[in-house]
Amino acid sequence: MIKAWLKENLKGDYQIWLIVFLLSVMSLLVVYSATGTYAYKTMRSTEFYLFKHGSLVVASLVLMWVCHRIDYRHYARLSKLALWLSVLLLMYAFLFGSTVNEANRWITIPLLNQTFQPSDLAKLALITNLAAMLAKRQHLRYDAKLLIPLVFWCIVICGCIALTNASTAMLLLATCFLLMFIGRVPVRFLALLVVGGLVLGTVALAAGQRFETVQKRIERFMDKDHVDFQAEQGYIAITNGGVTGRGPGQSLQRNFLPHPYSDFIFAVIVEEYGFLGGLFTLFLYLWLLYRGMRIVANTERAFGGLLSAGLSFSLVIQALVNMAVATGLVPVTGLPLPLVSMGGTSLLFTGVAIGIIISVSRDGVVEAKA
Hints:
By secondary structure, the protein is mainly alpha-helical. The protein has one domain (31-143, 174-183, 212-369). It is 71% helix and 4% strand. It has 15 helices and 3 strands. Strands 1-2-3 form a 3-stranded antiparallel beta sheet. α5 packs across α7 (144-162). The longest helix is centred in the C-terminal third of the chain and has 34 residues, at 265-298. The two termini are 23 Å apart. The relative contact order is 0.15.
């Protein structure tokens, strides 16, 4: 009966559903453990944050289910409107948004009293619109009139995001580059994207709120004689984990790590579940990327393939960057671990993105060929 219900209600690539389930369970376990000190500081119980996060996880899964039931071609029609809306919301957040960690990235939703990051909507809208535009041009001759709109939107959206969030802007620019490369865009336009994105991004960063923060983080990363406090605590957590970890709920560095439930949650995973737990987490994201690429190979429509590739790249690259920060391979950023870190609307938009990927998988016969 359970198998029949799952087959009837969960369509598309079943392996992606399994990956999401495993990451969601891991998220609940680690967030519950990592919020202990935070709960003490805010004079709340850890169950309060577990319930709050659990509610968002359930909401994310519901959105994923809803989006996977919708024909993904409908998203192309909404993407252009979402792009214009994203620009307006990003500028509003920069000028009038709620300030958290010295940056105006959030807009508070009235009545709900819930913060919302417009960059989450902007990423989804840009990747969807870019995939739609590239799909329409697959059988046309490439020239400036056809490709300038693609480059324009990529540069504008990334520039608006760079005003308050340099790491997200760079990640999105890299995703757009990969998507345009897959979409067979000529090298000169790829170079225009990189140069234009870096120039406008630098100007936006200098005019925005995070220039000094980014500069200090890079300087601390390059200074081998002095280790950044956040990075140092992450190293200690990973070292404490060993091969098999200290055990669920036994993290010590959660008491010292800034944001152990979001930015540095991978360090807590390794401390509690060891090198094997960290390796398993990495495997799940690489598995997700593999399934996303399988969908690209099996879908019959260019838009579906490009959309699946773009969203898969965006999620997995962000996950790899988050892990690289915890292990000291790149400077500290503020990127959460998708599907695992405690968050608000970012978790919901991640659910929407994966729901769209699964919707694309319904267009082919991935399940039968797996």
